[in-house]
Design goal:
The protein is mainly α. Helices cover about 65% and strands about 0% of the residues.
Length: about 140
């Protein structure tokens, strides 16, 4: 048997034994959630890991795992992560990153002197989103 054929067969043997074919490596490598890793990295420009974990209701280590691409959010955690991502994207229509952080941590008259961050932690996403939409659209509250 020519050496090149022998080498190709040896390369395929692990796949035949339940391994991964070379063409599948990229798909398997993305099981951890490369797109979610980008979303988390983008969010962490304006929202700390600890604040993001508090909003979603998980340990900050989970956020770090998502950022590293070791795994990806599922179910309600995924919905909350994507909700916060949308909210921050809308805030970027109005503020720079530092302004977003300040807005999230500042007491707000519209929220009875509560901080938007605290409302998000309490699960009042829709109320905060409505205020953000008004800000982005230039509509007074």
């Amino acid at each position: 048997m020519p050496d090149i054929v022998h080498e190709e067969l040896n390369a395929l043997l692990p796949a035949l034994r339940g391994g991964v074919l070379p063409a599948q490596e990229d798909v398997v490598a993305d099981r951890g959630g490369e797109q979610y890793s980008r979303i988390v990295s983008d969010l962490r420009e304006t929202v700390s890991t600890e604040d993001l974990a508090r909003i979603i209701g998980i340990h900050s280590r989970q956020i770090q795992n998502w950022a590293a691409g070791r795994n990806r959010p599922q179910g309600e955690n995924r919905e909350q992560l994507l909700g916060v991502y949308y909210l921050v994207q809308r805030l970027r229509d109005v503020y720079r990153p530092e302004g977003i952080e300040i807005w999230l941590h500042s007491r707000n008259r519209e929220f009875d002197a509560r901080r938007p961050l605290d409302l998000l932690v309490a699960g009042e996403y829709e109320r905060v989103l409505a205020a953000v939409e008004r800000l982005a659209d230039g509509t007074p509250s």
